[in-house]
Amino acid sequence: MFLPHIEVVTPLRQNKDSGVLIKFPPAIKQTIIKSVLQILLDKKSPQDLLGSPFAIKWAMECTGQSFALSLDNHETISQGIQLYKRWLSGKSLPPQFGSQKQKYYRDIFGHFSLLFQLRKGINNNLAQTHVKLCLQVIEIFQKIGSKDEGYLDEESWEHLLFVVIGVCDNLLSQEASRIEPTLTQELTPHLLKVVFDLWLQSGTQKHKMWERFENAFIKWRHQLQTIIQWSATTFGLMSRVINVLYGKHEGTEDILILLPPTSKAKFLPSKIKLTDEKLIFFWQKTLDLLGDPNQIQNPEIFFQAMSGIRDLVTLFLKIGTRKKYDIKYEQEYLPDQPDGNSILHIFGKSLFTAVQLARPGFEEGTECCYSILCNIFMTSQTKPFLESYITRFYESLIRAFENEKTSGRSICAILCNTTKIFSTDLPGIHILVPFYLDIIERIVVKKTLPPNYSVRVENLRKSCIEIILTLVCLPRYLTDLAIQSVRTSLKLENLKIKTFEDFKPFLMQILLKGFSNENDARNACFLLYSMGIYLLETINDLPGISSLVILTCQNFLCNPKSTQLKWPISVSLTALHLLNLIADKTEIINTQSNVTIPNLISSLSKLINNYINEPSILPQEDMETLVCTIFTVIDSYIMQSQWIYSHPKVLIQIMKSIELSIRDPVVGKTKKKQTKTFQSIKIKDAAMYLFHRLFKEVGNFPIATGPSTKSTTINETTIRDAFGLNEDEFNQLSTFLMIKRSRLMTIFEEPEISKKSENEKEEEEEEQRIIEKEEEEEETNDEKKLIILIRDINGKYAWRVRFRSLPLSKKLIPQSQWEKHIWNGEPRPPVYKQEMLLSQEQAHEQEIEFGLDGTILDYFSVDRELQHNCLTHVMGIQHRLEEVYRFIEEETALTETKLQRTKQIKRDYSWITEKRTIKKNNINDDDDDEDDDDLEKNQNEIEMEKNVINKNKGKSDKKNAMLYTFNNSRLFLANLGLIKLDGEDYVDIIEPNRNFRKSLGLLDKFPERITHTCSVFYIGPGQNRLTNPKAIYQNQQGSKDFQTFLTELGWIVDLQTHEGFKGGLDPELTGKYTPYYSNYSLELIFHVSTMIKFKEDPIDNKKNFLSKNRVVVVWVDDKRLFDPKLIKLGKNTLFIIIKPHHTGLFYITIENYLTSVIYGPLLSNTLLSRRLLAELVRKTIILNEHQLAISERSLVEPLRYRMGNLKAINNRFKINLDTTRFYTKLFSKK
Question: What is the pTM assigned to this prediction?
Answer without folding.
Answer: 0.75
